[in-house]
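Subject: sequence -> structure tokens, single chain

Hey, anyone have a minute? Need the predicted structure for the following. Not urgent.
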Amino acid sequence: MLDSLKGFGVTFHEMFRKVDTVQYPEGKRPPAPRFHGRHQLNRWPDGLEKCIGCELCAWACPADAIYVEGADNTEDGRYSPGERYGHVYQINYLRCILCGLCVEACPTRALTMTGEYELADDNRETLIWTKEQLLAPLEQGMEAPPHPMRLGSDEKDYYDLGSAGVVGRATGDAADDAGHAADHTGRAADDTGHAADDAASSRRDSGASQESGQGKESGQGKQSGQGKQSGRGSMQREGAT
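Reply:
Had a minute. Here:
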């Protein structure tokens, strides 16, 4: 009976709570910083594509939703800093589960996920997004490929600049990096808390050992004093006899 009343208590509590209604599509709520939305193929600041056509994203996809065909760069037709680039890139959003494993597998940070979630359609063909739809738009200072490398003499110069944070990054990277920074901050706080707990436990153990040592020394001192007094009393009785 008591359990039933507790259950009804939760029901009535939620029943009179104000409902938070979003008037979609007129009003849209911004997604979380690390929301897994539509994919985006990023560019380097000079406009070259970050995708090198390695197909690791396609291998990592559990739903087999990504199709990639790589092709070789040439001096007259260069689309990425590496030897190869993604000539054909397709994502089938009829299969995609937006898990983000493809983003984790990408070695060049070419593929990220945006906050766009309006992907519904009544045509199956339009839900297969191509490279042209997924590529990030050209920003100020970028040049549409193909063109020679502007930020270095080989692909290593590009990757060194990217790892050092010197070059700009496309939309989506900043949100992911902010989420990673928040995760690292949380882990650091947890480690600090564990360290504080360990220090407190160590102090308690040290105090207990000191009290135990003092107790033993006190007991030994009392026993030694009683032994000496007993010996003196015995000597005095022998002298009197």
